Amino acid sequence: MSYRSNKNKKAVAIMLVIVFVLLGCTGAWYWLVYKPQQEASEKTRLEQIAKEEAEKQRKEQEAAQQRAAYANLIINADIEFKVENWESALSQYTEALTLFPNEQYPKDQLVLINTKLKEITALEARKTAGIVETVSSASGRFFVIVSSSIDGDLAMDYATKLAKEGNYVKIIEPDAVNLLFYRVSIGDYDTREQAESASESNGSFGDGVWVLRY
Fold it and tell me: 0.85 exceeded by the pTM?
């Protein structure tokens, strides 16, 4: 009986030792392997979240700066467009379009500018060739008149001289109702203000410069 009791006690002791060893190994694995791995994984996850958030903020800031740059270019281009500084407006609308290629407004403005530049090129070509155009019917435009004459040949001679000097010249032909003279014009404009401004800048023609709507 005593032998069996001692044997049972030894078995219990061995089992307890085994249990303590297992618990120790489990504890060691948890604290030395599992928990550090979990902490490292969590740290990596948080760092990734922070990195993604920083990248998101960077892109948002970059987009805001790009939008501000675009708006500034459009404002400056519109100013240049209004005062007919075509080349400068062309450059800034083009730059704005490189920032936002899908924006329609700068595309439309570039079409207008290119059309205007073609008109200017054609006008310069006419000036170089000394071409004089004639206006035979009312257009509603405002003409800067520098000469009036009953004689059409005299009007043409003077107009040709002005054209060869590099002026854009038109002769407004007389009609039986409104005009009795041949009018020599060195420019025509959409508004009276534009024509009057042009007439003031052509002081070399003397005090006889005036504006005619026809």
Answer: no
